[in-house]
Amino acid sequence: MGAKKHVYEPSSAEKRRALMLVVALKKLFPNPRIALQYSSRWELFVAVVLSAQCTDKKVNEVTKTLFKKYQTLDEYVHARPLEFAQDIRQTGFYRNKAKHILASAQRIKEEFGGKVPKTMEEMLTLPGIARKSANVILGNAYGVVEGIAVDTHVMRLSRRFGLSTEKTPEKIERDLMALLPKEEWFTFTYCLIEYGRNYCTARACPTDHPLHAFDVQNPYHLKSLQQR
């Protein structure tokens, strides 16, 4: 038999601390929302695929034109692959993204009646869709919360705030889901993303940032722990 898989079981104190962090984040960002711009569930799907390894700002610049050129699912189904790839070139990794988007359009038309799937199981059958993207699409398109979307901000700050020591999105998501009540999962994601953009970026995180008391990497925090 193989080794038994470790399951993270946070203490009640760890859960209380995590919830205190959520409360503090919600005070800073009362109405956090996704930065991607879209007007339909399919457009959200496209924008999320384009956002891989690309800033939301750049994606919004590209989709401003893209969504005028391709206005229905059928127009994606019948799009010319090379032309479409050039249309999204500025988002990076555009050949793979084009392949995934156009193949997903075909699958959604044929297998899902032209509607973006509304379950995690179905979402994960589509080309180029992993849990992070599926969580973003399901949460924003349908209000369906089956997990926590772990992007680069969430990964970095989850470790910085002592919520996880893991290094992969899947394992960090598992830790966060164990720590936080399900009703906080969706809001927590976007609060943490906003915090990463506005206060504690990958390039610079001031020692006196608003939530430094939760920052296990903060020199002041480490010093106070050593003095206990």
Describe this structure in words.
With about 230 residues, the protein is an all-alpha fold. It folds into 2 domains: about 10-30 and about 145-215, Orthogonal Bundle (Endonuclease Iii, domain 2), CATH 1.10.1670.10; about 40-140, Endonuclease III, domain 1 (Orthogonal Bundle), CATH 1.10.340. Helix content is about 60%, strand content about 0%. The protein contains 12 helices and no strands. It has helices spanning about 10-30, 40-50, 55-70, 75, 80-85, 95-110, 120-125, 130-140, 150-160, 170-180, 180-200, 220-225. α9 crosses α11. Residues about 220-228 have low confidence and may be disordered. Keywords: 4Fe-4S, DNA damage, DNA repair, DNA-binding, Endonuclease, Glycosidase, Hydrolase, Iron, Iron-sulfur, Lyase, Metal-binding, Nuclease. This is Endonuclease III. It is an enzyme of class 4 (lyase).
- Tally the helices: 12
Please name the CATH architecture of the largest domain.
Orthogonal Bundle
Order of helices and strands: HHHHHHHHHHHH
Structural class: mainly alpha
Q: Residue share in helices?
A: 55-70%
CATH homologous superfamily of the largest domain, by name?
Answer: Hypothetical protein, domain 2
The fraction of residues in strands falls at under 5%
Q: How many domains in all?
A: 2
Apparent shape: elongated
Largest sheet: none
CATH topology name of the largest domain, in short, is Endonuclease III, domain 1
Q: Regarding CATH, which class of the largest domain?
A: Mainly Alpha
Characterize the quaternary organization of these chains.
Answer: single chain
Low-confidence segments, ≥5 residues, pLDDT <50?
A: 222-228
Number of DSSP E strands: 0
Family: Belongs to the Nth/MutY family.
Keywords: 4Fe-4S, DNA damage, DNA repair, DNA-binding, Endonuclease, Glycosidase, Hydrolase, Iron, Iron-sulfur, Lyase, Metal-binding, Nuclease
InterPro entries: DNA_glycosylase (IPR011257), Endonuclease-III-like_CS2 (IPR004036), HhH-GPD_domain (IPR003265), HhH_base_excis_C (IPR023170), Nth (IPR005759)
Cofactor: [4Fe-4S] cluster
